[in-house]
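Milestone M4 deliverable, item 7.
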Amino acid sequence: MNTTEQASQQQKSSKFSIKNIFVPDYENYEGVRRINIYVMRLFFALMFVFVATDSWTFILTHEGAWDPIKAVAWCTLAAYSTLALLGVFHTLRMLPIMLFMIFYKGLWLIVVAYPLWSAGTLKGSPAEEMAYMFSGIIIPILFMPWKYVFKKYIVLEKKKK
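Output delivered:
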């Protein structure tokens, strides 16, 4: 084995390196870059830790009759954030959960926050804090493996016989 082959073999054996996280990983992640996987896992973990904790605490400690609309919101948050735990371990399989988060937060920013902001009334409104929190969706949008999403969920490859 020559030195080039040894260096290549050594690079393959050392899975974690700065260079390796920016190149497509066909062996483990169907061509998705490791940096995308790591950032998505971080967001899945954050979803689980913060949203699941808040939503389940609210559900389990609620007393009295539920307002049906608020109950739907809390149950939806509890369900999606609990499923996010699966995304930590099965990141590519659980991307629809991440897409759901991007979609609902983006939609809320467009239909609620943007009109308030354009009218100059967002600052100081009850929606201000949520708008700042929801604007963090830019990170998952940037790190979402969009090529993979379109290939797996939109275009739907034909199965080979």
